[in-house]
Predict the 3D structure of the following.
Amino acid sequence: MRITGWHIDGFGIFSGYNVDNLPPGLTVIHGPNEAGKSTTMAFIRGVLFGFPSGRSSGNRYPPLNGGRHGGRLFIDAVAPRNGASDSEQWVVERNSGLASGTSRSSAAGSLSVTLPGGSPGTPEDLDQLLGHAGRELFRNIFAFSLSELESFRTLEGDAVRERIFSSSTVGAARSPNDVIGILDRRIAALLKRRSATAEVNDAMGKLDIVLNKIHDAKSAAADYPRIVQKRETLAQDIVRIEDSLQLAGRNLSMYQKLIDLWPDWLERSNALEELERIEIPEELPDGMEAHLRDLRNALHDARARRDERLKDLERDQRRLERIATDDSLVAIANDVKSLYRDMSAYEGHIEQLGEIEAKKDHEQRILDDQLSLLGPRWNRTRLESLDVSIPAANEVTAWNSKLELARDQLTDSDRSLKGQEDRIDTVRNDLDKIRAEFNDYNSTPDLDTLANDERFVQQLHSLLDDRVVAQGKLEDAEHIVEDRQAQLAIMPKSSATGTIPFWAIYAIILFMGVGAVAMIVFRQWLAVALLLVAALSMLVMSRRLPSASVSEEAQEAAGGLLDKARTSREQRVQELSALNTQIAQYATYFNLPPSPSRSDVAERATLLSRQRDARIRADDLARQIGELELTLQGLESRLQELIDERSSRQVKVTEITNEWESWRRGHGVPESMSPEAVTDLFTSIKRARETLSTLDDDTRRAISLRRKIQQFDERARDVISKVGLDPGDGGHTIATSSEYHYDSNSLGKLDTAAGGATLTTRIHNLYEKILEDEEARRSKEGLEAATEHARKEWKDAEDKLQEVTRNLDDLLRSAGAANEGELEEFIKRSARRHELESTVNAATTRIDAKLGLGEAAENMRSELATGDRTRWEAQLDIIAQQIDLLDAEKQEAIEHKTRAVDEDNRVAELSDLASLEIEAEGLRLQIADALERWQVAKAAKYLIEQTLDRYEREHQPQVVARASKLFAGIAGGRYRQLMTREGSIQVLNSHSQIVDVEQLSTGTAQQLYLCIRFGLADEFAQRGTLLPFIMDEVLVNFDPDRAQAVAETIAKVSTARQVLMFTCHPETVDMITQACIRADVPPPRIIDLKET
Amino acid sequence: MKFRFIHAADLHLDTPFKGVGKVNPTIAEALRDASIAAFDNLIDLALQQQVAFVILAGDIYDGAERGVRAQLRFLAGLKRLDNAGIRSFIAHGNHDPVEAGWSAIREWPRLVTVFAHNEVQVETVAIDGADVATVHGISFAQREESENLALRFAGGRGTGLQIGVLHCNVGKDSDHAPYAPCTLDDLVNAGLDYWALGHIHKRSILRDNHPWVVYPGNIQGRSSKPSESGAKGAYVVEVDGTSIQSVEFVPLDAIRFEHIYVSVSDISDLPGMQDNLQERAAELYSQAGSRAIILDASITGSGPVHDDLSREGVLDETLQSLRDASGDYVPFLWWNQLHDETSPTLDLEKIRQRNDFAGELLSLADNILDQENSMSSLSNELLSDLPKRKLETAGVMVPDIVSPALWWRATIHALELLLEERESDTP
């Protein structure tokens, strides 16, 4: 099989990349790091065996430069040495996610196989083409990198063996040893000696437990009849004991009943005996006892009532005797009551009189104060003579208003005058300031002059700009003239001969040097030849450069051009001169130098601008001065008007004052009083007059009150004297009317004698006595009526007592008793008889109820009649002991029976064999299933071990023999042979010593493994498929001699099968090329990845 | 006179079930009670059909030392018949011979007849004072009963329908122990009208006229074996005078064992297979008439499902998934076991042609399977680790050799492990 080329749609850095016409032998794919060597190798592996799964995107080489992930390999299926025609070519295409009729999609990408002739193929066809080699096999033997070559080194002993020989197990995705490992683990998990966790061991343990339970259950079940027998015997025992217990219980009950009945029996017997002993003369009628009791109660009540009524009568009579009355009070009772009613008014009058007198004193003091305030000569007469009526007061008010108005107007005039004078001062100050500023600006030229100057400055500025342009043009014209002159000067007179330029000579020398070095270092005649060719090419190129030649026509044309340039320069000079003249004129006007600078002109422009601003300000100030002068004139004329108005107002004030003085004198008002003061005087006089009037009213009220007091006093003295009291005593304390008087000079004073209070006290006392006497008279009348009633009741009670006594006598006679004591004895005996009869009846009922009827009852009665209670109690104790014994026996039997039942139940439970059998059967099934799997695993392991053993025995020697031959050739005589011992590879050196692979150097070991791969590949070829070798940098660890030897080996190998070598080292490319020459095989095709 | 009787056999009360793996407690309880529940169904049927008598032709209990519970429940059932005036005729078989074991039953109900073991016992059945049938019967004295007991029977010793009750192996059925062996002719020659036999668990009517020879099978299946699966019950025999009018089978089983076979050849994946299994199970369940079902399934055929099932744990997970999906069935539908009998998709012929490791392994396996001796000696070598005696003591069936089927499974297993393609290796 041969890979003839590939097309990469998109894979790592490649996109739309093609390689074709790969030869059947050796191809070297060369490129620096990152050029895509590993990518290409991964691509080839991926298309043939699938792309790695998505878990590691790094291994998948996602397309970095576009294109669909994947691509195509073109494969020639025929033997490599035979040339393949297009019609025999296979196309194997694999893309991620591709879906088509002939493709199979999987995680590894979708595969499409096209057979020679264009018909679609299947994955199986590809598998066939690849000789059933899997990815692992291909990687291990045919397509490997340096790292994979080195990885053999890191493995040891069995691992190396495993790696090498599992590689040869074509078609096995897993190595047999891996499978054996899997099976070993599976076998151990299922069954293992002395393991508790292995499935069979675990289930067997559980089964043992269940089987023991089954054994126990069966044993227990066999014991079941004995348990049942025991249980039944015990049940019978319990029945027997319960019978005995019942009998004992009945006896116990009987004796207990005898003891219980004995008190009733005894009570009945005693009652019967006593009944026989009771004697009564004759039968008493029913209710005798109650009748006697009622009569006795009635007698007792009647006596008590009579005694009580008698006590009431005597008490009322004693009270009546204690009440006393005074007949003399009856005559004055009405007068005293009348006085008593007026007494509060009288006391009120005395109190009012005191208050009025106090008020009068106060008002007198106010009047005195008011008169002294008016002046020293003011008294009651003068007070009443002055006219202070409302019209007079209104007139004074009018005078006052008039005078105030005139004075206010005068004050207004003063204020206006002052304000006007202030305004005039302000205007004058402003005018002075503006005039001063105006004088500062007034020297500036007028605006028209300034506008003219500014225009001139602008023109001067333009002229200066024009002069700069003119100067530039002049310089250009001079340059053109110079250039034309120079051109004319360098024009050759005839054509020049071509020469080799210096750069070409240098290049030739450089190439020659490099060529020499290359020849020495690389011994590469081809490279030297290429360099020589390159150098010669350069020489030719340099000589082919065009050589210059100048004609006479050209010289003439150049002269014409020079003349034109000179003419133009003259025009520029003249233009500049005219401009300078104009500038000088303007400069003179502005007093500037004849050729002013731009800054001079700018300065002048700034000055003109400032002058324009000053001129505008001066004109504005002149206008303001005119306006202020007009304002000042107006203000001064107004000031004069105000002065005149004030003078007239002053005259009016003087006139009104004189008229007021005339009115005052006419009305008797004191001198020098203003109308305002006169108004106040009138007010004070009015107040003093009001005080005087109030004082007169109070004096009249005091006289009236004294009169009323005196009248009461007289009535009181009269009544007091009537009851025999000394009126002088009373008169001494009561003031007469003469003692109350109004002293007009001292403006009234009340003499309040203490005697007034004494009089009212006496009236009060007298009134109290009259009321007490009236109350005593009413009590006496009530008591007299009550005494009469009590006497009547006492009489009724006495009658009732007599009646009851008669009834009692009647009763005693009817009972035949001599007296009450005898009757009571009769009643007592009769009651006892009835009581005993009840006792007998009750006891008989109770005994009958407990004993019932029949023989047993009669026997019990007979037994009771014996009255042998001691024996009964003794029997009771004996039976109770029997019952205790029987109870204990019964309890024991019940416990035995319970245990027997429990055992019975336990056996029934134990003998629940079905559940246990089900469990056991489940476990057996599990064990059988596990054993079946165990057997399968054991047999499978056996098959693999046997096959592996046979495989190694049959195939290994051939592989080693082939590898040995190749290795001896590479080792240059140092190592002679490879051999296997106990499955491991060993090496025989030139001294016939056996060396382990571990003792070899890295490079030697790698050579050895390479040889083993070649051996394995030959072994694989026995199956009829020659797969290509794809190697990546496998020579780098070898010394030069070994590397050459290996390269030669590879070259030889390439005669039998296709070899693709990847390298980044140019020297490796050379080495391979040389090796092909030495091995006499066709040179390799070199593909430079850099060129892609 | 018309009357009817029931013929049942092989009650195997408290019977251990075979081939039932670990089950949940509910199902374990149902299994424990299944044989007794089936017996209760039998008594209910007798009462409901108002039969004249019930014949139980041997193997009442599963073993001589059967549990107390089974005996007490058996007695309770007979008492119900006795109370209803229905006679019972019981013969002991090889599982409950008279001389072995014991009886927790101290006293049989009045209308119960347990046949003696030393001679054929003859009982007459009367209805309303008229003798309608004569029942002949004999019990096994011991388990290993090798005598042809059928020869002891002789007709013409009574009136009415002549019935023989015997636990025996007619025609030496190789699937059952050869106890009380006899031939059909032996039975025919005895001169009876109806042979009520027991011992063979798969019901069959060996002869349907003069005389009728009938095995009713057991009343409750005990495993998923063909003879134990499917409907189980008893025959109700309608009689008119001495003529058998009909023999009708009535199912009595409390739990039914079934075994289904599903091919995966046309099924692309596991869900498809599971759907197919569930459909089949639902169909069986609907046919079982409100019975619990214990179901085994064998998966056969070849296809992609084989690869899925070959993966570690997949079969168990599928079984669990089926159990989960049938959790709503009441009474239950229990998936007992799945048997993976599928074949791989490997092209063995192609592998054989390849001169590589797989080809050599297949060649080696072919050689082993071709040579029985070689296989036998290899088996001994392979099974040397097996604690055979211990397993046998525990009642675990251990094959002496690795069977050809297992060798073949091992070969396929080895090939699959070797050739198992990882995704990245797919060409």
User: Anything to note?
Assistant: The mean pLDDT of chain A is 80. Residues 598-666 of chain A form the longest helix (69 residues). Chain A touches chain B through 79 residues (CB under 8 Å). The longest strand of chain A covers residues 2-11.
